[in-house]
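Hi C.,

You asked whether I'd gotten around to modeling the 397-residue construct. I have! Everything is below, sequence then structure, no commentary in between.
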Amino acid sequence: MTSAVSNEPAFDPFEGVDENGRMAPKHYDAILLASFGGPEGQEDVIPFLRNVTAGRGIPDERLEEVATHYRANGGISPINEQNRALKAALEAELARRGVDLPVLWGNRNWAPYIKDVLQEAYDTGYRRILMVTTSVYSSYSSCRQYREDLGMNLLKTGLDKKLQVDKVRQYFDHPGFVEPFVEGVRESIAKVRAQLDGKGMTDGKIEILFSTHSIPTADAEASGPRDREFEEGSAYVAQHLANARAIMDRIPEAAGMDWQLVYQSRSGAPHIPWLEPDINDAIAELPAKGVNGVVIVPLGFVSDHMEVLWDLDTEAMDTCKELGLAADRTPTPGVHETFVSGLVDLLQERTLENNIAIRPALTELGPWYDVCRPGCCANLRGEKPTIAGADSTVGVE
């Protein structure tokens, strides 16, 4: 494939979209890997947290409470280095397949900022960009907020009718994301079983905790399109539950084991309801259930960023140790070969050249939409301009 740079004037963001939210393949000039971003030194921590919490009026002294997680790691979030590694892995896989598209990288909350990357892309001559994000599920913060950030930054740079940015579908149940967890859970079960055997507990009971980021209950209920019903009234919750079942069904060693979906990394005012149970509360209840070992699965996360390293590898594992539970945390997909290959498959679903027409999904909920349905994952704080949605306005004359 060649990345022929187009010089098109104003475009139609709904061009080629069918009634199911599936977009016809197009020519693209570049790929954008979009992520959350993170600080890369002690002096970056508070400015980064100000970016994350912009508009909420949170004083620096409260931000410093969260900053301790980063400060314990030298003020460095691992997410940026992980994104550099993922960018390189994507470039290598695209090259291996003969797909000649450059990979750009931009963050929502730290350098390289998406706004700057969009301007640089336009100045280079790119006119159509296909975006893939490091957030997998459907909710405001993991999908629509990315679409808003792109829309608002296109407007700020004056590129809203000059540069088109489309987005690949949410890929929570794509084999490329799910299969690395299947492999990881299988290996973690073996490790926890070995720990129990070493304690003489050959018949020890193991429970599997699938952990994801907690979000406000109202945001969870607003996730997904309005014209579908979901388990527990939430696409966000339903997608995680469906994935957990798909993983368990693929692991014979897990047959008969109990499992549950738990949450982590809650923030915000204590009077606002968030998804529960918290992982540490769930772990605390396990001994009374006769559980001797725990497998912790970071099902909501693509890579081992700070919330995985702190909330799971530090706090949750400390809780397990205090309770005398054998425990292991499975890897995130990171740059697993299957995950990287799956991301390139997702990109090729949308490219005209080297197109992949089959869209796999391992749960009954997918494959998800290329173009989000009207009102999908609504911003309860007030709607903003977005891209890649049926109710988008950016780029429309």
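If it helps when you're writing up: Confidence is low (pLDDT under 50) at residues 1-6.

Thanks,
B.
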